[in-house]
């Protein structure tokens, strides 16, 4: 497709937090290379804050199930739709608009083969931002990382300090969560070494953040009711964020804070590792059962959970110190 001839472009990525953040290198690169293109972005309302202040987007359109959605979109006279969601909802929009399209290849078969038969056709696979870019054949991404633009009237509740360490212990799935007691042990090791621990999370993470905070000396619970901007501005005042494979991991990357991330049931080949940001990825590469899923499970299917349990607090402590010195 020749983007030089495109004036109006619609990008579709309805959810979720991390997936939307991973679209930002493509948005930025398109706008910088083809400034004549008016970029609209279709997104679910609960994730709109991710892109609300993004200067490369002309219009942020909130997705709804209303029958009038297609009719309303047609009035914008798009020349091209780029579908980075690639599901039934986005397919309905594509076919309703009846315009040229670019579609994200989810590599569904390759993920199935890797999870179920350990046939790895993703060994040389690109990161998700680069795979998003493949949906627009002319685009070569720049060398910058993720974007998250914040409103100017948000102030951090903590002062910037090289001894501040953030913990983001939550995740939607059990098998993507480093154990709660490990966060506690790591937190106390860090506290003994003079570091201050801050807990980050949204509504679904309030309980685990409170539990961990209560058992780490001097820790502070900064979890909130899904206030992305407050979380991001507070993360910026940390020297590093320790986290699971989650949307908050990508949030930390978007505000350019080094991350140490634990990969349990998932692997780097799926493309969701930290993107162009200082990082340390801890994973148990000796297990033949990994990956057991490409999204996460509610329990370890074999019952041992070695993918996380063998990533010890001491290992995490040692690797975090190396990351902080790099």
Task: Give an account of the 3D structure.
The protein is α/β, with parallel strands linked by helices. It folds into 2 domains: 3-133, Glycogen Phosphorylase B (Rossmann fold, 3-Layer(aba) Sandwich), CATH 3.40.50; 164-325, Glycogen Phosphorylase B (Rossmann fold, 3-Layer(aba) Sandwich). The protein has helices at residues 17-21, 24-33, 68-74, 88-97, 108-117, 128-133, 180-192, 206-214, 228-235, 247-254, 306-309, 313-325; strands at residues 8-12, 38-43, 59-62, 80-83, 101-103, 164-168, 196-199, 220-221, 240-244, 259-263, 279-283. The strands form 2 sheets. A 6-stranded parallel sheet has the order 8-7-6-9-10-11, sandwiched between helices. A 5-stranded parallel sheet has the order 3-2-1-4-5, covered by helices on one side. β4, α4 and β5 (101-103) form a beta-alpha-beta unit. α7 (180-192) crosses α8 (206-214). It is globular, with a radius of gyration of 20 Å. The termini are far apart.
Topology:
Elements: E1 8-12, H1 17-21, H2 24-33, E2 38-43, E3 59-62, H3 68-74, E4 80-83, H4 88-97, E5 101-103, H5 108-117, H6 128-133, E6 164-168, H7 180-192, E7 196-199, H8 206-214, E8 220-221, H9 228-235, E9 240-244, H10 247-254, E10 259-263, E11 279-283, H11 306-309, H12 313-325
Parallel strand pairs: 1-2, 1-4, 2-3, 4-5, 6-7, 6-9, 7-8, 9-10, 10-11
Overall CATH class of the largest domain:
Alpha Beta
- The Rg value, from CA coordinates, equals 20 Å
Number of H- or I-type helical stretches: 12
| Structural class based on helices, strands and sheet pairing | alpha/beta
- Fraction of residues in helix: 25-40%
What is the CATH T-level topology of the largest domain? Answer: Rossmann fold
The rough form would be described as globular
Q: Low-confidence spans: pLDDT under 50, at least 5 residues?
A: none
Amount of beta strand:
5-15%
Q: Can you say what the CATH homologous superfamily of the largest domain is?
A: Glycogen Phosphorylase B
- Please give the largest β-sheet: 6 strands, parallel
Number of domains: 2
Strand elements, count: 11
């Amino acid at each position: 497709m020749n983007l030089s001839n495109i004036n109006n472009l619609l990008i579709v990525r309805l959810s979720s937090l991390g997936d939307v953040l991973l679209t930002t290198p493509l948005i930025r690169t398109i706008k910088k290379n083809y400034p004549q293109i008016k970029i609209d972005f279709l997104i679910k309302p609960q994730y709109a804050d991710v892109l609300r202040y993004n200067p490369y987007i002309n219009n942020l359109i909130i997705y709804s199930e209303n029958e009038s959605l297609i009719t309303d979109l047609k009035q914008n006279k798009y020349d091209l739709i780029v579908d980075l969601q690639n599901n039934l909802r986005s397919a309905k929009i594509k076919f309703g608009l009846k315009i040229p399209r670019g579609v994200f290849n989810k590599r569904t078969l390759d993920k199935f083969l890797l999870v179920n038969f350990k046939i790895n056709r993703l060994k040389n696979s690109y990161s998700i931002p680069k795979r998003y870019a493949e949906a627009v054949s002319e685009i070569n991404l720049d060398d910058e990382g993720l974007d998250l633009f914040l409103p100017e009237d948000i102030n951090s509740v903590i002062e910037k300090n090289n001894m501040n360490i953030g913990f983001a212990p939550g995740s939607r799935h059990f098998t993507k969560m480093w154990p709660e007691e490990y966060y506690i042990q790591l937190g106390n090791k860090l506290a003994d070494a003079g570091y201050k621990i801050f807990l980050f999370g949204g509504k679904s993470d309030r309980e685990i953040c409170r539990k961990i905070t209560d058992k780490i000396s001097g820790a502070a619970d900064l979890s909130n009711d899904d206030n992305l901007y407050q979380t991001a501005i507070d993360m910026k005042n940390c020297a590093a964020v320790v986290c699971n494979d989650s949307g908050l991991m990508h949030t930390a990357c978007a505000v350019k804070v080094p991350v140490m991330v634990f990969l349990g049931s998932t692997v780097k080949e799926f493309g969701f590792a930290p993107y162009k940001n200082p990082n340390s990825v801890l994973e148990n590469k000796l297990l033949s059962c990994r990956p057991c899923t490409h999204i996460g499970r509610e329990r370890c299917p074999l019952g041992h959970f070695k993918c996380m349990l063998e990533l010890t607090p001491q290992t995490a402590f040692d690797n975090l110190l190396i990351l902080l010195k790099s």
